[in-house]
Amino acid sequence: MIKVIICGAKGRMGERLVDLAIQDEELKFAGAIEAGNHSLLGTKITEEVSLTGNLKSIIKNGEVVIDFTNPKSSIDHARIAAAEGKKMVIGTTGFSSEQLEELKGIIKDIPCVLAPNMSKGVNLLFRLVGEVAKVLNNYDIEILEIHHNKKKDAPSGTANRIAEVVARVLERDINKVKVCGREGVIGARKKEEIGVHAVRAGDVVGEHTVFFAGPGERIELVHRAHSRDAFASGALFAAKWLIDKPKGLYNMEDVLDLK
Fold first, then answer.
1. Which one of 114, 137, 150, 218 has the minimum C-beta count within 10 Å?
2. Ramachandran angles phi, psi of 134, nearest 5°
3. Residue 256 CA: distances (Å) to CA of 120, 138, 241, 253
4. Which member of 28, 104, 120, 151 is catalytic?
């Protein structure tokens, strides 16, 4: 059994990770981490695991650390995991470019899966978007994402990744062509633009639509997450896949053999 420690165990994603890990016969739920000021610290999640705010104190109990927290916490947890030679699965989003480079430097000597979305369906969407963009390379491409009203970062990590896939395929500089929302008299849409738009409403788990609009027609690729189990099960699948891999940075395309 693969021993996993879950960081952010009382968050929306963390609770689903914990529940699914406990049910998985190939995994052993070995630790649960939350912020140091969390009101439930010290409470038992299972007979063997209590919620703690100190990853370093339990890091030896696990083989893979699964982290869905926030950029600062993920970086802190990565330092501890790297120092102990543990593997990591990181699904945190909202990293700045500087934070992302710092994280990559920390995890370079351990096996780590880093992905903005662990859903198998979404990662297939990344592949499909790239294939469609190759063919419809002169179409207007726009991305719309919808999430619950508690989500803190925008656009979503998934929407940003879709935009990066399109930019790479079309050989465009993402920093020059990505347009997040529009307002006022901005003139006609530039042909090379990749529009990215965020909606925050209700309890929507996650929805992404990619529009390819050309003369007289439009194609839409849509992924809708019905529950967080889609992401949680993908992260646990990644933890199993990672267990015998050499050090290096991987993403879900590696895990799902989509490259």
1. 150
2. -60, -40
3. 8, 30, 9, 5
4. 151
Q: What is the pLDDT along the chain (259 residues), one digit of tens a residue?
A: 999 999 999 999 999 999 999 999 999 999 999 998 999 999 999 999 999 999 999 999 999 999 999 999 999 999 999 999 999 999 998 899 999 999 999 999 999 999 988 999 999 999 999 999 999 999 999 999 999 999 999 999 899 999 999 999 999 999 999 999 999 999 999 999 999 999 999 999 999 999 999 999 999 999 999 999 999 999 999 999 999 999 999 999 999 998 7
Residues 12 and 37: their CA atoms lie apart, in Å, by: 17
- Whether residue 77 lies in the annotated active site: no
Residues contacting residue 214 through CB under 8 Å, at least 6 positions apart: 136, 138, 139, 140
Alpha helix positions (H), 94-194: 97-107, 120-135, 157-169, 174-177
Asked whether the beta carbons of 143 and 194 are under 8 A apart, the reply is yes
What is the rounded CA–CA span in Å between residue 161 and residue 93?
A: 11
Overall size of the chain counted in residues: 259
22 within 8 A of 29, measured Cβ to Cβ: yes
How many Cβ atoms sit within 10 Å of the Cβ of residue 179?
15
Q: Is 147 a catalytic residue?
A: yes
- Domains identified in the chain and CATH numbers: 2-114+228-255 (3.40.50.720), 120-225 (3.30.360.10)
Place of tokens 């003369």: 215
Query: How far apart are the C-alpha atoms of 80 and 123, rounded to whole Å?
Result: 28
Report which of 253, 114, 144, 137 is spatially closest to residue 204, judged by C-alpha positions.
144
